[in-house]
Structures are given as C-alpha cells and as structure tokens.
Amino acid sequence: MLVPSIFGENLFDDWFGFPDFRDMDRAEKKLYGGRGDRLMKTDVHEQEDHYEIDIDLPGFAKEDISLQLEEGYLTVSATKAVEENKESKGKLIRQERFSGSMQRSFYLGENLTEEDIKATFRDGVLSLSVPKKEQQKIPEKKTIRIDD
Which of 77, 99, 107, 109 is a plausible cystine mate for 103, CB 3.0–4.6 Å? Predict the structure, then answer.
C-alpha cells in the first residue's frame, strides 16, 4: 500500500510523536522530504513539436547555472555562495540564506545536440525548449536462413 508523502518520511513517528511546535519551520521538509531545500521544482509542458521545461531557481544568477548534455542526459547544476562581509554589515543575528549546490538530470534522448536546446533565465526561472525528435529506430532482429 502506498502512503502519501504528506505524512513525512516515517509514518509511525508522526502517529506516535507528541505535537511539537518546532516542526512549524520544517513545513517544506514535510512536503518535499529531507532534501526539499535542494530540490529544483520543475514543470514540463508538452507542445505539438517540442517540450517546455520550467525550473525554479530563486536567488541564483545566470552565471551560477550550468547545463550539460551528455549521452542523452541533460544535467542542470546550480551553485550559490552567500557573501560573507561581516565587518560592514554588523553582527549577524539570524541567517536563513544558504550556500550550496544542487543538480538534476533529465533524459532527453541521444539524438539531440546542444544547438537543439534553447535556454533562457528570467526572474529566477530557467526555461528550456527541447524539440521532439524521432528516436533512431533500432533494426528489428531478423533471422537469416541458410540455404542447403
């Protein structure tokens, strides 16, 4: 039986645990699991001749994002570092911004090239346009009869 992910990563901890108000700041982890802060939330739309992929990357600059196409897999990587200039900004009381990197891969097929994929980055959303291409047909297995 499949259990919806709204129960968290361990259903029995949710049932037998006492209410804890410290969980209020972990609402995203309840929805997306323990790695919710490193998840690239993505929408994929199919059009007649292409796919449109929108990936949320808030807080990243265009220079922080890299796209690589290798053996049919498109890998989207993003790295961000929080600037640490403690002397000019005063004493740090709370820090919620993070430094780190995230990565996600999509299988697009081995017949696409880098020139086929169009990418734009605007307002924290990476938009990709991927054309539909026919996969190269693998010849079906045929038996050759040996004549006497």
Answer: 77
Q: What is the pLDDT of residues 64-110, one digit of tens each?
A: 999 999 988 999 999 987 766 656 677 878 877 767 888 999 999 88
Examine the domain organization and report whether 50 and 110 are in the same domain: yes
pTM of the model: 0.63
State how far the Cα of 91 lies from the Cα of 22, in Å rounded to an integer: 25
The CATH number for 75's domain is: 2.60.40.790
Is there a single domain that holds both residue 77 and residue 98? yes
